[in-house]
Design goal:
The chain is of the alpha+beta class and 185 residues long. Helix content is 29%, strand content 32%. It has two domains: 31 residues; 133 residues, Immunoglobulin-like, CATH 2.60.40.1120.
Length: 185
């Protein structure tokens, strides 16, 4: 009974595809002659995806921890230092990339070099997330491999930035804590 249902399903699928492509009746006759014991080829197993959970916070001298809330973090396929090297910039000398991206998205006039820097960075962005009010966020459905997590936060007049290398493993949730100890110089 199962083989018969399977055969009928194959015939219907083939008939629908031939009607959709406009093939003639002779093709449909061949479809009805399909062997009842034929089996479909197994579909390839999709590569297992990875996830990345982040928690970002700043630790003050008093011991208090302030979550890095409502901040955008970018997952890049290349280290930001390497992306910026052709421009003679580093993550520390670039100024605020977030301010730069915000200004460009609002249509401000930025000179040609910064437009090129923005394009160079955007070509390496895999995904982005915004942290919640507790400084937590999660990237989902990621291909395994080496990635770079970039984000910055303004605390008063001080800008804190992270550019952290992350190894993503198939089928695993990688957790990264971002704080004063792994911030960019």
């Amino acid at each position: 009974m199962k083989i018969r249902s399977f055969t009928v399903a194959i015939i219907l699928a083939f008939a629908c595809s031939t009607v959709a492509t406009g093939q003639k009746r002779s093709t449909r006759r061949r479809a009805s002659q399909t062997q009842p014991n034929a089996t479909a080829a197994a579909a390839p197993t999709p590569m297992s995806q990875a996830t990345l959970s982040i928690e970002a916070g700043l630790i003050y001298e008093s011991g208090d921890v302030k979550p890095v809330a409502r901040t955008t973090f970018y997952l890049l396929d290349e280290d930001l230092r390497i992306i910026l090297k052709p421009f003679g910039e580093t993550p520390g000398t670039l100024g605020s990339m977030m301010d730069l991206l915000r200004a460009l998205s609002e249509g401000s006039s930025i000179d040609k070099e910064y437009s090129q820097i923005k394009s160079a960075i955007e070509s390496h962005v895999i995904a982005s997330v915004i942290t919640d009010f507790n400084g937590k966020a999660k990237f989902e459905s990621l291909a395994p491999g080496t990635r770079f997590l970039y984000g910055e936060f303004h605390a008063g007049r001080e800008r804190v930035a992270w550019n952290v290398r992350v190894e993503l493993t198939a089928g695993k949730d990688t957790a990264v804590n971002l704080d004063n100890s792994n911030r960019s110089p």
